[in-house]
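To: structure subgroup
Subject: Chain for Friday's discussion

All,

I'm putting the inputs and outputs inline so they're searchable in the archive.
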Amino acid sequence: MYENAISNWPEDERPREKLILRGAENLSNAELLAILLRTGVRGKSAVDLARHILQQLGGLRALEQWEPEELRQIHGLSLAKVAQIKAAIELGKRILSEEKKTFGSVYSSRQVFEYLLPRMRDLKREVFKTLYLNSRNQIVRESTTSTGTINSSAIYPREILSEAYRTGAAAVVFAHNHPSGGTTPSMEDRRVTRELVVAGEAVQVTVMDHLIIGENDYFSFADEGYIERVKDEYRRFIARQ
């Protein structure tokens, strides 16, 4: 047994025991990560290894951003350790998502943004999500519609709106991320939004919004007035027929 093994530490300084005695909020990032790692490597305790990993990554968020194979290149991170870390991160994201759902209804772009941010902020590829809402604006279903570059050839309005009927949704909200962290909509973003809004109007499913999720901010097509303008144009077109 190595001299710097955690088992040789005073009991109230060992991360697991410290968490139980003092609460998780009183542990450092390295101590929390050490609990997930469980063991260190030759010459390093689990806490020492955790500190080394965080220094190499530049912080906690990289644990989510890096792919499992990338993390495994770090000395001391086995497949099992990487799986434990990724599982813990996913559980945290799901807890946050459930907490947002307990708020019940979503009435603003800000609420939708806060609901989706934990899931979408650190994604390396563009992901297009659809939220299906009931008549009380409660989220009844969330689906990932497309992964990769978001364009009109990758989004199928008929399938999305058919799902709205299957779930009994009265309205939908769309969102996709920009991996760059920016939120400025592209011409393709506007084209896709227009197609979805027009398709929704045609089958009487309300498209409430389309958000672009950035690193810490968002863009809302509804707040900009674009959604309503497209709806007005469509209604005037139908009235002339």
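Points worth raising on Friday:
The mean pLDDT is 87.
The first strand starts at residue 127 and ends at 133.

D.
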